[in-house]
Amino acid sequence: MTNYKDLDVWNKSITLVEKVYVITKIFPEEEKFALTNQVRRSVISIPSNIAEGWGRKSTKDYIRFLHIALGSLYELETQLIISEKINYIKDEDLQMIVLIIKDL
Q: Sorted alphabetically, which CDD domains does this protein's record hold (predicted)?
């Protein structure tokens, strides 16, 4: 592979970004600069770190950035679980996202 855009994990994480942005559109307005922002920053961090690691051209750096992306993935999952618990998202939406997360 010559480009990070050819990586399955990067493409799946872009799909995850799209889904999370749709789900967070329904968050309350008062969460715009709080939980909504935090969730979106976490999800964007995943493909961004995959791409940045790929661009470093060093296996050691690539692995380090994959670990950062994985941490962001766990952070995202936790934030979405909280969002479901406080009734910002439906359980079905959470489960859909969890399936994508497990596929990564």
A: 23S_rRNA_IVP_like
List, in order, residues 6 or more apart from 32 with CB less than 8 Å away: none
pTM of the model: 0.94
**For the chain, what are the domain ranges?**
4-103
Determine the CATH number of domain 4-103.
Answer: 1.20.1440.60
Which H, E and C letters describe the chain, residue by residue?
CCCHHHCHHHHHHHHHHHHHHHHHCCCCHHHCCCHHHHHHHHHHHHHHHHHHHHHCCCHHHHHHHHHHHHHHHHHHHHHHHHHHHCCCCCHHHHHHHHHHHHHC
pLDDT at 96: 95
Cβ-based burial of 80 (10 A; exposed 0-12, middle 13-18, buried ≥19): buried
